[in-house]
Amino acid sequence: PLYFDYCASAPLHPRALKKLMTATEACFANPSSAHQMGFAARRLIEEARDQLSGLLQVTPAEIIFTSGATESNNLAIQGALRAWRRKTGLVPHILLSEIEHSSVYQCCKFLGEEGAEVTLLPVDRNGIVSVQKVKESLKSNTALVSVMHVNNETGSLQPISEIGRLIKAQQPGVYFHVDGVQGFGKLPVAMDHIDLYTISGHKIGGPKGIGLLVKKEHVEIDPLLYGGEQENGWRPGTTNVPAILGFAAAVEAALEEREEKMEHISLLHDYVYSRLKGIPGIILNSPDIPLSSPHIINFSCIKKGITSAMMIGILEKNGIIASSQSACSSQAKQSRVLLAMTGDEATSSASIRLSFHETVKMEDAQYLTDAVERMMNRLQLMNKFELL
Ligand code: PLP
């Protein structure tokens, strides 16, 4: 089958795979051990950290390795709120967009249940947060604002530079957290006004189970886990050396190859987007470029009674692997993100997300759109009885 779910997970980049394999074989000692082999493993981690610090334009001390973006998001948000509450003794206020990934959304929901004030920032029909809304929602007890770079269901691009600049101008003590998982390696990022920044290995050609949190030096967070002194105590637990080396190789390759890769992905996007636009019964949920990143296209079927699961099944029978929303929320009947954008239950429960990769060929994109067209023709012909 042809795979179009690269946002859920991408294959390992050959350079990452090589690093992962060689380090897995050669480097099994515990990097915290006080002997020659432990020191050697530790040195490899610090070399990877130095390399990443150059690539991300932050200091090595600002990089905390984690088990992935879910952990990075939780560490950033829960960690910052705990520190803020400990320092001020006040009830903290968090601002987040309605379309955040569940690792941010559920984390904030939990903090709300624990007593924090939580404000959800609405998005427009294109799935984009308004900078003005952020401005109006900041309060004297706001501890943190969390807005993602690129939405993982629709690709919609958030105005993170403007939001960062606004926060620093209006209330510089408020931390700005960005979930950069779907934007990193695809679009350029300026780290200037970002205090906490999350990325994940397996979305950019690195291994699963590895990610990082950039925590700028002035930012105070409390750890979520207690134990050893690894990662300066921010993230105790034996460090995964091969995964870190594979991750660093993937980040290097992702940034080196970014422009060329995105040029190709933009061509795929433009072809698929314009063809889908012409198919009766489809509404495109992703805004067009430049309001969206070209690697994601989300659409819904407007015929009553159709569900995402039905469409995924039909596409799969036609050799296409697609998804409806993020893999982390795939059990939900409806997309929270699309509901926030459209307010429409039918659209939100009959959506397909397609995501692209540099290895996808133009003929694959043609095959894909032909399959979607056939599926739509078939769905249009199905009667009420068949849909039940
Ligand atoms: N944030 C976004 C925007 C994502 O797309 C994902 C992956 O689905 C995550 C966070 C979670 O990443 P991880 O699998 O590394 O925990």
Automatic annotation (TrEMBL):
Named cofactor requirement(s)? pyridoxal 5'-phosphate
Show the Pfam families listed in the entry.
Aminotran_5 (PF00266)
Q: Where is the Aminotransferase class V domain?
A: 3-368
- Family membership, please give it: Belongs to the class-V pyridoxal-phosphate-dependent aminotransferase family. NifS/IscS subfamily.
Q: Which domain of life is it from?
A: Bacteria
Keywords recorded for this protein, A-Z: Iron, Iron-sulfur, Metal-binding, Pyridoxal phosphate
- Under what name is this protein listed? Cysteine desulfurase family protein
